[in-house]
């Protein structure tokens, strides 16, 4: 990735946070009005041009504002993001909900996926080697403006009928991180450019599984990433001990 100055990185963070919150392209006028970055409007405009030239932002088709590219989101996740710890009340509620099902693997994994969909307000999915495929929260993605595009929605929902493709795609991902984020066409599908998949692999004995969410690339990664990690940890802890 090209090097960014501290000022440009801060500007990129502000733009991404604003875009995630509003789903609207972000213009320099919005930045000047809503945020005090300690620099002139001209500097902000020039830095936004630089961010676009380096591939972190792109022009929106619908307005003069800019939106983050997959590269912009990747830089945000890798360099700028500060994870937000899952609230203790949520941790306790999730643990209690799943603890009761720890003796029945299928029921446990099905409810883990359902709980993840509810907690993140995204479409969640999961599977385990030689086991069923689970998904929940389809209606959640329909609330996002990105999925007003019927072709994108058909592509995403079509993945639910391509469980072997999903399994192979996620199984091939090599990462040192406990939670992996596939942004845009990193999934191998150009049509998925407006989307992200956030998932974690887990191990039960000699079987590998995964659990994760699919939603717009414009998502709250600081909350989503630790939630996916926590569900994965509960799966290994509660199912792995029986």
* CATH architectural arrangement of the largest domain: 2-Layer Sandwich
Strand content: 15-25%
Largest sheet: 5 strands, antiparallel
CATH fourth-tier homologous superfamily of the largest domain: GAF domain
Shape: elongated
How much is the average pLDDT? 93
Provide the succession of SSEs.
HHHEEHHHEEHHHEEEH
- Quote the distance from N terminus to C terminus: 45 Å
| Count of folded domains | 2
The number of helical segments is 10
Total beta strands: 7
Quaternary arrangement of the chains shown?
Answer: single chain
Radius of gyration: 19 Å
Please state the structural category.
alpha+beta
Task: Please estimate the helix content.
Answer: 40-55%
CATH topology of the largest domain: Beta-Lactamase
**Main sheet: strand order:** 4-3-7-6-5
Explained architecture:
There is one protein chain. With 242 residues, the protein is of the alpha+beta class. It folds into two domains: 6-80, Arc Repressor Mutant, subunit A, CATH 1.10.10.10; 88-240, GAF domain (Beta-Lactamase, 2-Layer Sandwich). The protein is built from ten helices and seven strands. The radius of gyration is 19 Å and the shape is elongated. Residues 37-61 form the HTH deoR-type domain. Residues 76-225 form the Heat-inducible transcription repressor HrcA C-terminal domain.
Question: How are the elements arranged and paired?
Answer:
Blueprint: H1 6-22, H2 28-34, H3 41-53, E1 57-59, E2 66-68, H4 70-80, H5 88-99, H6 105-120, E3 123-128, E4 133-136, H7 138-142, H8 150-159, H9 163-171, E5 180-183, E6 195-204, E7 207-216, H10 221-240
Antiparallel strand pairs: 1-2, 3-4, 3-7, 5-6, 6-7
Helix pairs in contact: 1-4, 2-3, 5-6, 5-10, 6-10
């Amino acid at each position: 990735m090209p090097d960014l100055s501290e000022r440009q990185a801060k500007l990129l963070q502000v733009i991404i946070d604003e875009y995630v919150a509003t789903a609207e392209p972000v213009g320099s006028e919005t930045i000047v009005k809503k945020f005090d970055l300690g620099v002139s409007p001209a500097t902000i405009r020039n830095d936004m041009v630089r961010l676009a030239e380096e591939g972190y932002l792109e022009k929106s088709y619908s307005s003069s504002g800019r939106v983050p590219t997959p590269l912009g989101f990747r830089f945000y996740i890798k360099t700028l993001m500060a994870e937000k710890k899952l609230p203790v009340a949520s941790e306790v509620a999730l643990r209690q909900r799943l603890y009761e099902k720890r003796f029945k693997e299928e029921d446990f994994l099905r409810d883990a996926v359902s709980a993840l969909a509810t907690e993140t307000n995204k479409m969640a999915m999961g599977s385990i080697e030689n086991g069923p495929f689970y998904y929940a929260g389809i209606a959640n993605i329909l609330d996002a403006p990105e999925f007003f595009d019927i072709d994108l929605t058909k592509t995403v929902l079509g993945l639910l009928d391509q469980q072997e493709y999903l399994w192979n795609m996620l199984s091939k991902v090599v990462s040192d991180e406990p939670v992996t984020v596939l942004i845009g066409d990193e999934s191998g599908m150009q049509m998925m450019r407006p989307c992200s998949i956030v998932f974690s692999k887990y191990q039960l004995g000699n079987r590998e599984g995964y659990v994760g969410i699919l939603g717009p690339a414009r998502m709250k990664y600081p909350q989503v990433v630790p939630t996916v990690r926590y569900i994965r940890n509960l799966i290994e802890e509660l199912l792995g001990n029986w």
